[in-house]
Amino acid sequence: MSRFLIALGIILILAGLLWPLVQKLGLGRLPGDIVIERGGARIYIPIVSAILVSVVLSVVLNLILWIVGR
């Protein structure tokens, strides 16, 4: 469990450091992300961005767990 928490901490630190780069690549404004603006209200539903982040995190976590488990 401690190895998993350390790996998770490293991933969170890397995500925080890479966040400005990710925003420049357009994550959050991909085709398929829904933005509804009416009056002064704005509703944002990042469907495609969430799927992309989920796939990338799944691959990264599986690689880390595979390396740690060896």
Protein architecture, described:
This protein has 70 residues and is an alpha+beta fold. The chain has one domain. Helices cover 66% and strands 14% of the residues. Strand 1 and strand 2 (41-45) form a beta hairpin. Helix 1 runs antiparallel to helix 2. The model has no long low-confidence stretch (mean pLDDT 88).
- What's the number of structural domains? 1
DSSP strand content: 5-15%
Characterize the main sheet. 2 strands, antiparallel
For the termini, the CA-CA separation is 15 Å
In short:
The chain is α+β, with helices and mostly antiparallel strands.
Overview features:
alpha+beta; two-stranded antiparallel sheet; 2 helices
SSE blueprint and pairings:
Blueprint: H1 2-24, E1 34-38, E2 41-45, H2 47-69
Antiparallel strand pairs: 1-2
Helix pairs in contact: 1-2
InterPro entries: DUF2905
Keywords: Membrane, Transmembrane, Transmembrane helix
Protein name: DUF2905 domain-containing protein
